Amino acid sequence: MxxxxxxxxxxxxxxxxxxxxxAMMPPSGPIVRMIVQPVPGLVAEGEHLPPELLGQxxxxxxxxxxxxxxxxxxxxxxxxxxxxxxxEQGGELAERWSGLDAIVFAEPDYPRQRR
Length: 115
What we know:
Blueprint: E1 7-10, E2 13-16, E3 31-38, H1 51-61, E4 65-71, E5 77-85, H2 87-98, E6 103-108
């Protein structure tokens, strides 16, 4: 089993890293945010993503508009998506973004499923 940098081992389950913490139920619903981590040294801790990198991400996002939301821990950043994407579209976008030399990983910020 391969552990991705954006995943956490939570209560015996490997779950995607979420800006909302460790989700206890499988992810579902539309993807309204993405998590990206640029290569080390590209962005100072707590700083926003450079406009050039945001432009590259936007170009790969197509008609989906990106908005910078906030820096996260460990060098990751949270971006908003408008309109929301399906899980499949979010996964495809993460793959495209992860192909950039400036990105270590990208993944959807899966919403928690309410009980």
